[in-house]
């Protein structure tokens, strides 16, 4: 049986009359990278603050390592590493001093791993924190977190302010944590980041979890893009079950572009085969397609939560 490191059940949180979290239920299993996605304001950070014991939920239950996140926050924090999306540092301390201070808070010490991370992330540790850009402030927190021997790593928009090369470096280190059997909760709105690293995904909209599962499971709900050319006419393909946005190429005979529901792709391919396929190109749905599928769904709420 797979052990859940993080378990959240029907979590709700209100600020006065405003309900930021309406119904949050998901878990993070041991040794997996769980992607927590949604646009800014969907409720990702509020959920994480509840997990960290910074905010107290109005109802529902949240545990980490089977410990209540509000009652046992201190014990939990000894086993986790956390990076927020906006890092604030003491302005008169150098980056190196801040890293050492953050490590000490987690009962950790500066190590050769810390030095390697400083070199990899190209951080000047002798520079005063007040002179750091947003990206460099993020690097300080990331280096401290990745130097920490934790059981659970919580990243809340961790690559905010980083350039693409540093984003790729962060992804490499998260995949290394996964190989070590560590658990990671990654909150992000950068879909390519989540798609590359995460084993499972939870989509939040308007303070509610609307879907969880592996990317492959979720792809069944979206459409595959098809470009096909055949020897015989493609007339009638547009009427097949599951075919959408069918467009004939005006320059090439018997060539068309369309989308097909994943559940119907087998039947559509069988029909195309009868028409003697010349060329065929299929593009599986991406996480971005999936994300837009939910956020453009009929009846979608305005996502104005914190």
TrEMBL record:
Belongs to the ABC transporter superfamily. Residues 6-231 form the ABC transporter domain. This is ABC transporter ATP-binding protein. PANTHER family: ABC TRANSPORTER ATP-BINDING PROTEIN, ABC TRANSPORTER ATP-BINDING PROTEIN NATA. The keyword ATP-binding applies. SUPFAM superfamilies: P-loop containing nucleoside triphosphate hydrolases. GO terms for molecular function: ATP binding. Keywords: ATP-binding, Nucleotide-binding, Transport. It comes from Secundilactobacillus angelensis.
């Amino acid at each position: 049986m797979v052990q859940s490191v993080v378990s959240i059940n029907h979590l709700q949180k209100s600020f006065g009359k405003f309900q930021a979290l309406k119904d949050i239920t998901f878990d993070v299993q041991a040794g997996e990278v769980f992607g927590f996605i949604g646009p800014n304001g969907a409720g990702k950070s509020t959920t994480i603050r509840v997990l960290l014991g910074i905010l107290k939920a109005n109802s529902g239950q949240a545990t980490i390592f089977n410990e209540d996140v509000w009652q046992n926050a201190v014990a939990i924090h000894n086993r986790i590493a956390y990076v927020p999306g906006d890092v604030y540092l003491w302005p008169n301390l150098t980056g190196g001093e801040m890293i050492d201070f953050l490590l000490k808070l987690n009962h950790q010490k500066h190590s050769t791993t810390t030095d390697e991370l400083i070199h990899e992330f190209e951080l000047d540790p002798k520079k005063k924190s007040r002179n750091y850009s947003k990206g460099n402030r993020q690097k300080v927190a990331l280096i401290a977190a990745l130097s920490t021997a934790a059981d659970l790593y919580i990243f809340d928009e961790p690559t905010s302010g980083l350039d693409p090369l540093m984003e790729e470096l962060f992804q490499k280190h998260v995949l290394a944590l996964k190989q070590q059997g560590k658990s990671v909760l990654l909150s992000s709105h950068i879909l390519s980041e989540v798609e590359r690293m995460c084993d499972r995904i939870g989509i939040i909209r308007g303070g509610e979890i609307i879907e969880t599962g592996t990317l492959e499971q979720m792809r069944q709900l979206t459409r595959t893009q098809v470009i096909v050319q055949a020897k015989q006419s493609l007339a009638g393909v547009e009427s097949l079950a599951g075919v959408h946005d069918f467009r004939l190429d005006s320059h090439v005979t018997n060539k068309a572009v369309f989308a097909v529901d994943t559940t119907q792709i087998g039947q559509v391919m069988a029909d195309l085969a009868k028409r003697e396929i010349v060329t065929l190109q299929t593009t599986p749905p991406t996480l971005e397609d999936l994300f837009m599928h939910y956020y453009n769904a009929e009846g979608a709420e305005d996502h104005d939560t914190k």
